[in-house]
């Protein structure tokens, strides 16, 4: 275990152990109040530029500025429209332009204040601005607190697919204030929960079993929520520290994503299907595909689907509103997956709950046949 953990009252600090790029994830219900001091210590005298979305800025912008006040000068606050459609070239150009207008220098810091969309977009902007400035993740959605703010994957989507343009650029600090989640919509909380459950499904069956019994407390807030977030961050920190650039085992964090990203791209990166929902459907499909290949017991797929459905997540392609793509359309999108090697598909498969593994050279014919079986509704194309 390379991720260090320090327990602090009603919260926790997890270290992402990456040598000269190591950083802390500060987790807790009042973590935001410490941001000014942490940023001032990280880059004494530096200015910061805040990138947020309109919803988060309106709800929590004043608290962020109060946390920075008297410690750090805010050079600019840049907002983008909420939602996945902001992870695009046009918004990247606008954000980078605004950072240059504010004369953000190499020694300054960008603060990504929002969900995973803002984190991925602002992180990518920071990666390319003046060939790289440091940034701080202040994640405000459950998904961002348990997954996207950690690990340094940044980027945008294109019509070709999800996150196809981007860079590995680690944050200098992550501050996850769990109280900010109180304003998150139930739908977005559920979407983030899919990535929480993912950590149990990858290699922590005891965590998955705990979630099956305690998810209501996680949704309600309090210690169970903090425990779920800290456990997720520890798991992600451990994987990232061992394989920063996804040369091998980091691909496990992609469980459910090869299918999920294809459905998201087909939906046009709209609110019709948000990332966590696509991951929920994709994880059930990953279990189903593994069962079809004789690698795992079909009962495990049922158990996963039962739990995700219990919290209100979609679990089948037919749950996606607005019609389904054809298997051929999905195969086209899957061929763009970043795990493809010399044209061959790579999938994260399972031998059971908590027993995920990476399989290269998965035959396209097997994937297509499986998709045809699972696209129960009439395709729209
Ligand atoms: N880089 C990574 O490792 C990684 C990991 C997982 C997901 N992602 C990416 O993250 C994105 C999804 O992130 P997301 O689910 O946070 O979506 P998001 O950023 O769109 O946030 C979801 C919605 O919640 C709102 N919101 C955020 N915080 C809020 C708060 N505290 N109160 C009220 N509303 C709030 C936002 O305005 C938005 O409408 C996808 O683009 C996905 O690809 C990246
Ligand atoms: O951090 C990772 O590695 C992940 O795979 C986490 C995923 O939850 C996340 O959605 C990530 O952005 C997907 O990565 P990608 O390389 O498939 O775009
Ligand atoms: Zn994801």
TrEMBL record:
Coarse class of the protein's main subcellular location: cytoplasm
Pathway: Metabolic intermediate biosynthesis; chorismate biosynthesis; chorismate from D-erythrose 4-phosphate and phosphoenolpyruvate: step 2/7
Residue positions binding NAD(+): 116-120, 140-141, 153, 162
Entry note: cofactor: Binds 1 divalent metal cation per subunit. Can use either Co(2+) or Zn(2+).
Domain 3-dehydroquinate synthase N-terminal: 78-190
Family according to the record: Belongs to the sugar phosphate cyclases superfamily. Dehydroquinate synthase family.
Record's function text: Catalyzes the conversion of 3-deoxy-D-arabino-heptulosonate 7-phosphate (DAHP) to dehydroquinate (DHQ).
Protein name as it appears in the record: 3-dehydroquinate synthase
Primary gene name: aroB
């Amino acid at each position: 275990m390379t991720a260090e953990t320090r327990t602090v009252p009603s919260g926790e600090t997890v270290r992402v152990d990456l040598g000269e790029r190591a950083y802390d994830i500060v987790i807790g219900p009042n973590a935001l109040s410490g941001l000014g001091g942490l940023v001032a210590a990280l880059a004494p005298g530096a200015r910061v530029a805040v990138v947020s979305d309109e919803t988060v800025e309106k709800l929590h912008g004043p608290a962020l500025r109060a946390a920075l006040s008297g410690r750090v000068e805010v050079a600019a606050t840049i907002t983008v429209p909420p939602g996945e459609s902001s992870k695009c070239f046009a918004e990247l150009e606008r954000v980078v332009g605004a950072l240059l207008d504010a004369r953000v220098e190499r020694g300054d810091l960008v603060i990504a204040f929002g969900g995973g969309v803002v984190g991925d977009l602002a992180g990518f902007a920071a990666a390319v601005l003046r060939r790289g400035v440091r940034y701080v993740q202040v994640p405000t959605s459950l998904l961002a607190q348990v997954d996207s703010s950690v690990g340094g994957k940044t980027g945008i989507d294109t019509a070709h697919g999800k996150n196809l343009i981007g860079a590995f650029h680690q944050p200098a600090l992550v501050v996850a204030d769990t109280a900010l989640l109180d304003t998150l919509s139930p739908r977005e909380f559920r979407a983030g929960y899919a990535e929480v459950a993912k950590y149990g499904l990858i290699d922590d069956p005891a965590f998955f079993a705990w979630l099956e019994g305690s998810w209501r407390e996680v949704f309600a807030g309090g210690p169970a929520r903090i425990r779920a977030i800290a456990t997720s961050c520890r798991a992600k920190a451990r994987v990232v520290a061992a394989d920063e650039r996804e040369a091998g085992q980091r691909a496990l964090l992609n469980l459910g994503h090869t299918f999920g990203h294809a459905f998201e791209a087909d939906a046009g990166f709209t609110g019709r299907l948000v990332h966590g929902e696509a991951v929920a459907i994709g994880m059930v499909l990953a279990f189903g595909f593994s069962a079809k290949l004789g690698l795992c017991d079909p009962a495990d797929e049922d158990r996963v689907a039962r739990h995700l459905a219990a919290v209100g997540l979609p679990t089948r392609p037919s749950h996606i509103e607005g019609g389904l793509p054809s298997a051929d359309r999905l195969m086209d999108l899957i061929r763009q997956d970043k795990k493809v090697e010399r044209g061959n598909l790579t999938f994260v498969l399972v031998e059971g709950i908590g027993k995920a593994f990476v399989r290269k050279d998965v035959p396209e014919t097997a994937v297509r046949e499986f998709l045809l079986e699972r696209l129960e509704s009439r395709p729209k194309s």
